[in-house]
S-transferase (Pseudoalteromonas piratica), 282 residues
Amino acid sequence: MKDNAYQPPKVWQWQPGNGGKFANINRPISGATHEKQLPEGEHPLQLYSLATPNGVKVTILLEELLEKGIKEAEYDAFLIDIMEGEQFSSGFVEINPNSKIPALLDRSTSPPTPVFESGAILLYLAEKFNCFLPTEPHLKAKCLSWLFWQMGSGPALGGGFGHFYAYAPEPLEYPINRFTMEVKRQLDLLDKHLAENDYICGDEYTIADIAIWPWYGVLVRGDLYNAAEFLAVDEYRNLSAWAERIFVRPAVKRGRMVNRSWGDESEQVHERHSAKDFVNKG
């Protein structure tokens, strides 16, 4: 062990401000930090989110449902600024006690149904509207397997590789190497799978694609963590082709724009959004 290496104490103590870029919104306890009710719109579906990869999953699915003419999928979207701690308001915690975006409230049910975790929201909406989820048992099992693969594998990309490569206070060789190896294994897995499939479940575009694309598709397109060259994403040709097939879908383009709080003038913030209004503004 190096002389200046970090040595964990016998009992860890929280030091506010430690932890890099997101230190000010991380804490070792759950629950609300302040009283504030969430805004509400006119549609049955109320989405409280941000255009992170996990947030984009849900808005892409909602826009895909609307693309199919399913008017019941009209929604209002409200931006939750996680850097300002809005996910810790009493209203948000009431819907999602885990204080992470996205969170959905379905007011078409009695009582209203709160849903949190992006994978759970995708599955809830796909079953509610009977779309983007295969009905044949073999294909449904395949779709759900890949959906939950993303939910389980994604943290190695986001909280692992992305954090240590792009956000940590200083670059550290061991965690960057550790998570780069795992991310490249995941990219290789997807690339090999897509060598014989147009989409994750074969010929059918499903919530598995919608869950995986905002992380891995965006990564190989060079739009996540500025890490395309570092990860040599050009090696994954099948994955890159799949990423482009999904990128050109109109609903994907719209879904990426909702609740976006950064970017150029073509990526404006929509703090309150109904899909119909957004399409008209298109």
